[in-house]
Specification:
Elements (H helix, E strand, L loop, with lengths): L7 H8 L3 H9 L7 E2 L5 E2 L2 H15 L5 H49 L2 H8 L3 H7 L3 H24 L6 H35 L1 H28 L8 H13 L1 H7 L5 H14 L5
Antiparallel strand pairs: 1-2
């Protein structure tokens, strides 16, 4: 019989401890009790064997009281539970991330109303129970998808912005990198936030607060980037909140500008916007 399913006699043989000692340790709560079956049989696992081996090792290293041994075993127990909880949390976070990545294209293609849980679980290749273990409903997932887009822009901008700034050329390069981080995620942002705006119009009680939350998060992200730029000497001291709102407006209506200026390549539009933002509109 495997050590995952042992009788007390087998546990005694493998551990080298008499039955009376094992029963004593159980009564003193130094090791957990056995797994009971419907009958009178009791079974022990590799965990019990491991605990007994630890106790033997502790006792062999000195004349330690049962109270002290119990304290050590409790600390080991807590550490193992913490590790298991950490692994479970990490796995849960990975599952959530996979669902979000699969759901964004579904929402962008079908829209919020027409996208179903069935569509999402099929795209993510998971079961419904896994979905509901990660999110309460479609609405919660939808909002998390939009937040994820904001975080992607934030992380990319901060990652590419960590460079030494020596002169104006470096300042412009940092600005470019932040802007490109925005351009990489902006199509997703525009599609998803427009779906959220439509949902807020159709069902204001459910979605108006969520729309405000998402817009506030986006402005806070832009504001933080501007304030970091001021601290690093990239920009002069300005009203960071006002500038963040202006940039958000530019981002939200960039698609309109792109459609109206089909003949202008994206880079030309970006260079013109950068010129206005950095140097203003007054004649030099």
């Amino acid at each position: 019989m495997k050590t995952q399913d042992m009788t007390i006699s087998e546990l005694s043989r493998l551990s080298g401890l008499p039955l009376s000692t094992i029963k004593f340790y159980i009564r003193e709560e130094l090791i957990p009790g056995p797994r009971k079956t419907r009958g009178t049989r009791a079974y022990y696992s590799a965990r019990h064997l491991h605990r007994l081996e630890l106790i033997k090792k502790i006792r062999s290293e000195g004349n330690m009281s049962l109270a002290k041994i119990r304290e050590i075993m409790d600390l080991i127990e807590q550490g193992e539970k913490g590790a298991e909880g950490g692994r479970a949390a990490e796995k849960s976070a990975l599952v959530k991330q996979e669902i979000i990545q699969a759901a964004i294209p579904v929402f962008r293609k079908k829209g919020y109303e027409k996208a179903t849980i069935a569509d999402i679980v099929e795209a993510a290749r998971i079961g419904r129970s896994t979905f509901y273990g990660a999110f309460r409903n479609k609405k919660d997932l939808f909002i998390e998808c939009i937040k994820q887009i904001i975080f992607l822009e934030m992380e990319k901008g901060e990652e590419d912005g960590r460079m030494a700034v020596k002169d104006e050329k470096d300042i412009l390069e940092v600005f470019d990198r932040h802007a490109m981080a925005y351009y990489n995620v902006n199509p997703m942002w525009i599609d998803m936030v427009n779906l959220l705006r439509a949902a807020a119009i159709n069902d204001p009680e459910e979605f108006t607060d969520k729309l405000d939350e998402v817009i506030h998060l986006k402005i806070s992200m832009l504001e933080r980037a501007i304030e970091n730029g001021i601290k690093r000497g990239l920009f002069r001291r300005i009203n960071a909140t006002l500038m963040a709102v202006m940039l958000l407006g530019l981002q939200d209506y960039h698609d309109y500008i792109r459609k109206k200026s089909r003949e202008d390549p994206l880079r030309k539009q970006y260079d013109e916007a950068k010129e206005i933002i950095l140097y203003g509109i007054l004649k030099k």
